[in-house]
Structures are given as C-alpha cells and as structure tokens.
Design goal:
This protein is mainly alpha-helical and 159 residues long. It is built from 7 helices and no strands.
Length: 159
C-alpha cells in the first residue's frame, strides 16, 4: 500500500496495541490496516519519541535518469533567449540541427512548460493591458434607455 500514509499518532497507536497486549502481529496489522512489515519497520525506527515516527520526505535524492542534462537545459534556454519569437516547432528544429538535440518534441515542451521559460498563452492574454472604455452617459431623456423585459403568461394577468 504505497499510497497510504500513516500519521505518527496512528503508528504509535498500532505499536502500543501490539506491544501493550498479547495480540498477534497479524491481528494488529489487520485492525490497523497496514502490513506486518510496516509494523516491524515502525518498531525499529521508534526511539520513544513521536518525532521518530513522523513521515520522512519521499522525494528522490537523485534526478531521474531520463531527465534533461545540464547541457541540454542550457541549450534550450540559450536558443529561446536568442529567438523568443520562435514557435515550438522552430525551436525544436534549431535544437536538432545546431545542438544535436535528440529527444522527443514533447520532452522539450514539457521542460519549457515546467520551468516557466515561456509563459502560457493564457498568461500572455492576461498581461495585455486593459483599457476601460468611457461609459457614454446620456445627457437628455430619450437618448438612451435600459429596459428589462419579462414574459408574463396570460393566466397571471388578472386585470
């Protein structure tokens, strides 16, 4: 159950249930909805403080083996800095021909998007300056009218 994260209090409760009574480890694991191996691991890590049972970071310590290299990242950023008006296809073609970039175009696009090298189209739309237009207030009666229209059925008309 890799997706299940137990809190430190839940781990301590399971350990107390296991050690405080004569219950079998299988019964405790079933009651706490964890594995026996987890109970043994928690018991080994427990030093009497609640802090020892807290969840550690699950973030990997090393980068993914297929991630972009430092040279590839530098090449993408320099080409985009030199040609900010290039589309993704042109940028990919430039990288392929001049920098021997051999990854899939989606890998380049994902890197650009995740690292914020090029803002999205929606962000560019928001950045455009908004100039509110002047409201034309009528100076005389009859020049401009606002009317709300509502349909009333004939059954409701009692006049």
């Amino acid at each position: 159950m890799k997706s299940v994260k137990f809190t430190a209090k839940q781990k301590l409760k399971a350990l107390n249930m296991w050690s405080g009574t004569t219950r079998d480890i299988a019964c405790v694991a079933e009651k706490c909805k964890c594995t026996e191996r987890s109970l043994w691991r928690w018991k080994a890590a427990y030093d009497g403080s609640l802090e020892s049972l807290r969840n550690k970071s699950s973030r990997p310590l090393t980068p993914h083996p297929n991630s972009h290299t430092a040279e590839e990242r530098k090449n993408i950023e320099t080409v985009y800095a030199e040609h900010p008006d290039f589309g993704y296809a042109e940028l990919y073609g430039e990288l392929r021909t001049n920098y021997a970039y051999d990854r899939h175009p989606m890998a380049m696009y994902s890197y650009i998007r995740k690292n914020g090298i090029r803002p999205s189209e929606a962000a560019l739309e928001i950045q455009k300056s908004y100039e509110p237009k002047k409201y034309d207030t009528p100076q005389m009666l009859g020049v401009k009218w606002q009317m709300d229209v509502k349909f009333i059925p004939a059954e409701c008309n009692y006049l």
